[in-house]
Structure formats: structure tokens, C-alpha cells
Amino acid sequence: MTDVHCVFRINAAIGEGPVWCPRERVLYWVNIPAGAIHRFDPQSGTDAVFCVGRRLGSFALRESGAMVVAVDDGFAFFEPRTGAFEELDQVEAHLPQNRFNDGKCDSRGRFWAGSMVGDYRNAPAPSGSLYRLDPDLTVTRVETGVTISNGLGWSPDDATMYYADTGTGIIYAYDFDAAAGRIENRRAFVTVPPEDGEPDGIAVDAEGFVWCVLSGGGRIARYDPDGRTERWVALPVPLPTSCAFGGDDLGVLYVTSMSYELSATAFAAAPLSGSLFAMEAPAPGLAVPRFAG
Prior knowledge:
Elements: E1 4-8, E2 15-21, E3 26-31, E4 36-41, E5 46-51, E6 56-61, E7 67-71, E8 75-79, E9 84-89, E10 98-105, E11 111-117, E12 128-133, E13 139-146, E14 149-154, E15 160-165, E16 170-177, E17 182-191, E18 198-204, E19 210-215, E20 219-223, E21 229-234, E22 240-246, E23 252-257, H1 264-269, E24 276-280
Antiparallel strand pairs: 1-24, 2-3, 3-4, 4-5, 6-7, 7-8, 8-9, 10-11, 11-12, 12-13, 14-15, 15-16, 16-17, 18-19, 19-20, 20-21, 22-23, 23-24
């Protein structure tokens, strides 16, 4: 059995969006309701916090330094050292019930991030979308009718994009045109049974296996390129949220989690909820590119 360790104990409401920074050898991650970006140093075990000042779904590191972030209603630049915040595009200002969620950069440095309705269980219809922010700061909506836009990942050959829509329980696969940034031929890669949890964050390893955190299921699944379950990894918390490869050889899988919505009884049974975890992976991960804009 794979050993999972708590590397930083904190009761984050919704820990999400981990991103490994090889230049600094640290892991950045977010606490969504707090509008905070955390910087975890695995060497010292310390965790610094940078407040964005807006509810924050995800971010990507920039080639030029700093970050591009997906906040409540759109995209912005954020500089953690100074706190400088530059709004770029209020993509969903007309949808106050929505907020941005997970995001990630593709191989050409384009930032993909999607939205969700805040109270999705009681929403009359899915109102989330998936967007692509190009290096020239052009925003393109590439998918609609989404419940909870979540994990993104690309195959090692860059020919397939994976995308989790949590509310449907489906991880989709698309044919991916890396040069144009286009997706087509959507099909179900994995349909997760409700009793196993809900598909959330995604990371793809160098062997082309797709790791998906199953929120509510308290575990991570590793799927082969044909969508067959290769292994389960149990976690000490019921609500893991996302995952990312890190470490010098990208051989460590980091996992975020949440404590939000847990009853007092459930939290007492899983007091590490909201903490950051790590495990040695059977295969290294793929490097996540920086935003080229």
C-alpha cells in the first residue's frame, strides 16, 4: 500500500489548485474562500500566505514572474511579493451566482480555467463554462453547460485533454490540437459511480496514467490511458480536492483537501481535513507549463 503523509497540517476551508514551482522548489496552493495563495516549502515545512483580496479558484505561474489568477468572475495578474492585483477580464460579471474554479496551463502556455454555480445542487441548470486565456490575453469560451468545472490535464503526447465535470461524475477526454488550442470529439473517459465519490482535481503522469482525486470518496484513483482503474490510494480525509506532482524529479504527488461542509462529527473523525498531503508516486509526473503571457 502507498503511504500518504500529512506534510502540513491546517484546516483550510477549501484547499485547492496545487502547483509545483521548480525554480523555487516549493508548492503553491490556494484556499478558495479565504482568497489566499499558500507557498509550502517541503524542505523547511513552512507555509507562507499571500492574500489576493478576492475569492480565488486557481492560478498559474507566469514566465515573466508573478501569477495569473482566476478569481470570482474572471482573470487577473497577481504579484505575491507586493500584493499588486491587475484585473484583466470580468468574463462572468453577468453571472453573479457563478465563481471560477480549477485551472491549468497547456504546453503552449495558455491558461485554461472554468466556472461553476456556487450552489450547484439547487441550481435549475448548469451555468458553468470552460475558458482559455491566451498569451495575448484573449479569452475564449470553449465549453458550456458545466456543473462544476474541475481537474484538467493533458496526455504525454499532447493529443488528449482530460477534464472533470464534478457534478456529472464524468472525466471527459477530448482530442487536443496543441498548435491551435482547440478541443473536439468529447467522450466519457471515466464515469465515477456516486458511491466512489466525485471526480475533482487531475494530474497526469509520465506513463500517461490519469490521477483523479475523488472528493467524498476519501481517495485517489489512477486510471490507465484506456480509463481502467489501475489503483486506489486511500486518504485520511473524506474530502480531498486536487493533486499535483512535485519534488526535484516530480516523483511526489501532493494532495490538497477541504474541511468545508463537514459536520462536527465528521470533522472529529477526520481532524486532518483541510491539510496538505504527499505520497511517493509509482511514476513521475509531467511538468506543468507556465503562462506565456
